[in-house]
Amino acid sequence: MATGDDADFAEFARARAGQLYRSAFLLCGDRQLAEDLVQETFAKVYVAWRKRLAAPIDNPAAYAHTTLVRTHISARRRRSSTERPSDRLPEQPATGPDSALRLTLTQALARLEPSDRALLVMRYLDDVSVADTAEALGISSGAVRNRSLRALDRIRPLLGDVTFAELHA
Amino acid sequence: MTDPHQYFTEATATLEPDVQGLVAGGLRRGRARRRRRQVLTTLASGGAVAVLALASVGVPQLLRSEAPVQPAGGGGGATESAQEEPTPSGVAPEPAQPRTLAVTPGQVPGVVADVIGGDVETVMAYPGDRDGVVAHFRWDGAYTTVFVDGFLEDRAPLAECRATAAQGMQCSSLPDGSAERQWQEQQPAADGGTTGRGLSLFTVDGWALEVISYNAAEPKSSVQTSPEPPISFDQMRQVVTSDAWFA
């Protein structure tokens, strides 16, 4: 699969694939779309990784996460512009200790705008700082805090008896 | 469970992807993308020399058989010939040297306000996929998105327009060889029933400029701020054809 100069990139990609896929899944709510998003992200990072006469990427993991989120938001806006009905089957419930939790969360996130969904995934799954989230999305740190709290507030009723102490801290 | 971080983590804890498949697929796409860029860079630099040489000997008509040149920074080379995507006049577009973008993502809402007026408030702004800019903002309170970015693939304007169009969207060629796409659609009631309207311009030098306007503060909102999206197609055309985007 990876030969020569690509071995270092392949090693990086293998190490990050799991986390990127989990983020992609929450962004897309669909396994196939998530796989496509991660592959597209790897393709973009690969081009930057192998760019001649360019400084190495400072923090490849953070770069990849930012690329993932931006690719997701841009693709949704650009390709179809508005959401359209799909003949793709929705994510099916799976058995497992976290499957009910996951289904509930993906259904709740689906109610949010892509940008707000991205904010929550960056902040609460990827554990990206407020400052780094703000930089990645081109907004102020205050906007990240306000919109994260508003988005959490919006999905909270959909999460059953889950209560987020942070909302009212 | 009171911590959202814990909730998000536990909800995805057992999601295990096919790591080898993801890495192999990403590498395959990345190598192909990189090859395209290398070809493009060669074509762009070689094309510039050829244009100068041909112009100097006075045979500009020969250029009409050339495919359009894409932006060197990331538009992709033109692999689809003008013969495959003829313009209405039957004349292939003149080759164009790629223009250089003159704005940052954060400046996009201001450029729109300069061109068509209105009060703007940035929601999100970041670089595009192909060395361009993307901004989501509110224009007089209505959600608006603007993309100015290189083509996604190595295609002629009309082909790129068609390839990135959703079902039902129509593309048309313009006399200068560029392509335009318009659409308007009301979203399902489950998504708030907002109406979106968009206009895209695909230029002969490989830039895609797109404006999308919604009649609400968010794309999916049950509270509409006006019966129709507030930015008209004519205003969108003013935005995408403005000289303000490029140096």
TrEMBL record, chain A:
Transmembrane segments: none annotated. Residues 104-154 form the RNA polymerase sigma factor 70 region 4 type domain. Residues 80-90 have a biased composition (Basic and acidic residues). Keywords: DNA-binding, Sigma factor, Transcription, Transcription regulation. Residues 15-81 form the RNA polymerase sigma-70 region domain. Residues 73-98 are annotated as: Disordered. The keyword Transcription regulation applies. Pfam families: Sigma70_r2 (PF04542), Sigma70_r4_2 (PF08281). InterPro entries: RNA_pol_sigma-70-like, RNA_pol_sigma-70_dom, RNA_pol_sigma-E_actinobac, RNA_pol_sigma70_r2, RNA_pol_sigma70_r4_t2, RNA_pol_sigma_r2, RNA_pol_sigma_r3/r4-like, WH-like_DNA-bd_sf. PANTHER family: ECF RNA POLYMERASE SIGMA FACTOR SIGM (PTHR43133:SF50), RNA POLYMERASE ECF-TYPE SIGMA FACTO (PTHR43133). Belongs to the sigma-70 factor family. ECF subfamily. This is SigE family RNA polymerase sigma factor. It comes from Nocardioides aestuarii.
UniProtKB/TrEMBL annotation, chain B:
Keywords: Membrane, Transmembrane, Transmembrane helix. Residues 67-105, 170-197 are annotated as: Disordered. The chain crosses the membrane at residues 39-59. InterPro entries: TAT_signal. This is Uncharacterized protein. It comes from Nocardioides aestuarii.
